[in-house]
Amino acid sequence: MKKRKSGTKKAMLMGIGIFLGGMGWFGTRQAQAAEPSGENTPVVENLQVVVTEDQMQLQAQCSYQDYDDEKGCIMTLYLYKVGDDDAYIAADQELSYARTGQGSTDPVPAEEGIYQASVGLDYGNIIRQINSQRYYRVIRSEDRFQISEIADPEQEENGNENLEREEEIMERGGCRHVLEAVQVQEATPVKDAVIAYECTLCGEICSYGEVPNSAYASFQREVIQAIENAKEGEVVISTELWVSFHKKVLEAISERTDVTVRIRYRYRGASYELVIPSGTDVSGMADEKGFCGFRYLEQKLQEAMT
């Protein structure tokens, strides 16, 4: 593996999305991992960054279609702020299953700069990402913020100088990196997956990054496997990091009427143990976003017993 290098702003942005026909598709490659088929890909539309009515906060928004648990993925909406050398997540929101739905991240205080909206699709063994067709420049005007669409922040700032510089690089035998995200380390229940941004033209690895929320998704998958593969009796789940289940875990628990699930976890520095007796139906306890916290689950079980 090549030595890690710092990528330019354009390289990092291309790493976030390889643009095809104006819509960015970003996929982490993994050896022998099957690409999700078109029929397993929900439709994402109207992906954009907007300023709130008070013109003081920002959020990412999108509409989507054909998203259900049969698609085999978890979709998360992201608001990215693009820096000089990288991009970081300013806000994120997991999207709820819906035949036709709309989603938005929680508003965050606006700051001047360049932003982009993105939707990540976690298929377990592969992560794909859809980016907004445009970047968004946010500027402050007196006591309010204004937002405008731009095609390419680097080209807008540097104009023809950027094109001349790229031509000069090519003349010297260099490479205008076109990056693809390659998964180099799988997610575990305690660590996010690691991806390398590798140039598809010259093979150089320009930077590394983590896949947000992939550790949490790995934890959910391992819990489901433990429950499904358990013999009659009891399954013990221990975690120092996580305090909630996705509804798929709740469904797996409810289907195993012959298994008691004991969850040992930490919350705000204290240790807790939650016991879900065999035969307990917890499949309907997830909230509208498809999640259920351990503390809430324990409260509901206690209420049911009284």
The number of distinct structural domains comes to: 2
Shape: globular
Q: In total, how many beta strands?
A: 20
Helix content: 10-25%
- Our Rg estimate from Cα atoms comes to 22 Å
The number of helical segments is 6
Which features characterize this protein?
306 residues, four-stranded antiparallel beta sheet, 20% helix, disordered N terminus, single chain, alpha+beta, eight-stranded antiparallel beta sheet, globular, 2 domains
Characterization of the model:
This protein has 306 residues and is of the alpha+beta class. It has two domains: 9-212, no CATH class; 215-305, no CATH class. The chain contains six helices and 20 strands. The chain has helices at 9-16, 153-158, 160-171, 214-228, 247-255, 294-305; strands at residues 18-20, 23-27, 43-51, 57-67, 74-82, 87-94, 98-104, 108-109, 113-122, 127-131, 135-141, 144-150, 179-185, 194-199, 205-210, 233-239, 244-246, 259-267, 270-276, 291-293. Helix 4 runs parallel beside helix 5 (247-255). Mean pLDDT is 79; it is low at 1-35 and 165-172.
Strand and helix layout:
Layout: H1 9-16, E1 18-20, E2 23-27, E3 43-51, E4 57-67, E5 74-82, E6 87-94, E7 98-104, E8 108-109, E9 113-122, E10 127-131, E11 135-141, E12 144-150, H2 153-158, H3 160-171, E13 179-185, E14 194-199, E15 205-210, H4 214-228, E16 233-239, E17 244-246, H5 247-255, E18 259-267, E19 270-276, E20 291-293, H6 294-305
Parallel strand pairs: 16-18
Antiparallel strand pairs: 1-2, 2-10, 3-4, 4-7, 4-8, 5-6, 5-9, 9-10, 9-11, 11-12, 13-14, 14-15, 17-20, 18-19
